[in-house]
Amino acid sequence: MRTRIVGTGFVTGENRVTNHDLQRMLDTTDDWIRERTGVEQRYYAEQGTTTSDLGARAAEQALADAGVPKEAVDLVIFATMTPDFYFPGCGGLLQQKLGLRTIPAIDIRQQCTGFLFGLSVADAFLKAGQAKTVLLVGAEIHSGFMPWGQWDFLFGRSAQGPTADEKALYTQFRDRAVIFGDAGAAAVLRAEPGERGLLGFALHSDGANHEDLFVNTGGMAFRPYMSEAHLREHRQMPAMNGRSVYRMAIGLLPEVIREVCAAQNVKVEEIDCFIAHQANLRINEAMMRALKLPEERMFNNIQRYGNTTAASIPLAYHEARKQGRIKPGSLVCFAGLGSGFHWGAALMRE
Predict the structure, then answer these.
(1) CA dihedral 301, 307, 308, 312 (to 10 degrees)
(2) Is the same domain home to 202 and 185?
(3) Are 208 and 306 members of one domain?
(4) Rounded distance between C-alpha atoms, residue 114 and residue 116, angstroms
(5) pLDDT single digits (tens) 90-100
(6) Are residues 148 and 212 in the same domain?
(7) Is 294 exposed, middle or buried (0-12, 13-18, 19+ CB in 10 A)?
(8) Cα(208)–Cα(212) distance, rounded to whole angstroms?
(9) What CATH number does residue 292 fall under?
(10) Is 187 helix (H, G, I), strand (E, B) or coil?
(11) Nearest residue to 21 via CA among 149, 180, 150, 156
């Protein structure tokens, strides 16, 4: 028996925001953003749309794609770093919104590798016989981090834009503000006989350098855990040492891909399609150079959606599958690195 992905689906935030739209909010250009990140556009959710909303919408699509009724789902795994509330987590909220039975719902927090770690959790439950149908969801609303207050102007519904002082403030966060997008993606997993399905994982965590990418407020390291001073300092915006994260990614990801391949007696060059976390197009390009493989083996869609954290891997997998880049029998490698830091890779025979 192997764990197989039998259906997928995704949704984005309701508002498409191009690089040219962001030029009106802060000091940047389309060329500057594309050169450093590869992002051309992203989607932001409407105010009032929550992470669990996007997750539920994506889950409905995945269930329909799989041809699986809601009644068959017996475990939910929800991966996000942008939950609706400090607590409770989004898993139970999704259960209620979908009208599922009172099945267990697990929330996990591995940020950009949330879906990858979630695959391993689902695989373990299915192989142990503790579940028969798992709904795995990755969803994020990053726009809640963003410092701007002129949302209607950004969405083209108002002529009232930022002042010069506000634009200068927003520009302080330019390196992060241009990267992220809002999306939800989901997969339905079942254990089935045969050789197709998940083959193995290589997963790692190391908290030593967590301050290279973290949110420096909103936790029990502070009293109160959120203060007016922190909000004035816009600490809700992730703090990031971009150079350090880039070095970690281009060093650790090729290494962990080789690790999972060695464990499964697979040669790296046998992999037909790489589905990596969509953090930065330049990272994925560097990863393929390090593996000495053509860039065409990597499926990238960060150009259209930005970095959607826990949603990025399932979103990319869904599109690659629907576009025919992944066919029955294809050897697929999932890989990613996320804050914490967590990183890993998984192999799957489609």
Answers:
(1) 40
(2) no
(3) yes
(4) 5
(5) 999 999 999 99
(6) no
(7) exposed
(8) 9
(9) 3.40.47.10
(10) strand
(11) 156
169 shares a domain with 27 = yes
| Residues 215 and 310 reside in one and the same domain | yes
Q: DSSP per residue over 57-74, as a string? A: HHHHHHHHHHT--GGG--
Coil, strand or helix: which one is 160? coil
- Please check whether residues 112 and 177 belong to one and the same domain: yes
200 bridge partner residues: 347
Contact 343, 171 (CB under 8 A): no
What does the pLDDT look like over 80-127, one tens digit per residue?
999 999 999 999 999 999 999 999 999 999 999 999 999 999 999 999
**How far apart, in whole angstroms, are the C-alpha atoms of residue 263 and residue 313?**
22
Number of domains in the chain: 2
Catalytic residues: 112, 277, 307
Please count the residues of the chain: 350
Would you place residue 268 in the very low, low, confident or very high pLDDT band (cuts 50, 70, 90)?
A: very high
Task: Let me know whether 143 and 269 are in one domain.
Answer: no
| Residues linked to residue 250 through DSSP beta bridges, in sequence order | none
